[in-house]
Amino acid sequence: MKIKTFVVALLLLGYTLSSKAQDNYQSSEYDVIYQIQVALINGNSVNWTKLKNLTDLGQLTTNTVELDPADTPGKTPVYLGYYLGKSTAQKVLAEVKKRGYTKAKMVSDGAYQLGHSTGKHIRYGLQLGAFKSLRLVKVGQYPKKNDEDRIYLQYKGGAYKVFYNLYTKGDTPPGLAEAKNELVPWLKKKGYQVFVQKFR
Fold first, then answer.
1. Which stretch of DSSP H or E encloses residue 98?
2. Would the pLDDT of 96 be above 90?
């Protein structure tokens, strides 16, 4: 009986320490992933070539990070992304509107993917570059090993930083250790000076 009590006490202590560590986390602007809804297409067939002038700013997709996207019967929303933090998305949105997409708007994941509820340990990315000007970012130039991979953009410290995927430290999915073993060598073979960088 004493052994069971001791084990339960250890488990509770571990939970308490874990909870305290989580409580000490300082929220960040970069907890939230944003996209920009650039178009609302009639039907479900998107002519991607018409949107080609946006590919330097982000990845085009019909999938949204929104938890509760607006219902648009008979129409397909097209999104541009992915942006870490509101200030990043605002800068890209201004450029998108300059290019004629005057009805474009920001949407977000509400801090679900990276925020307190599910993913606050996701703090690392494979940084591919940092640029002083949005014109130099050219998101469309970066290769993707898998269709699920994402290129993220973050404006921080006066520079636009480009990240290939986001990770937790170690082996916990999405694990940084696996990325170091597989993606880093692959990206280096492609000619990129990639390195692991904490983004928040």
1. helix 86-98
2. yes
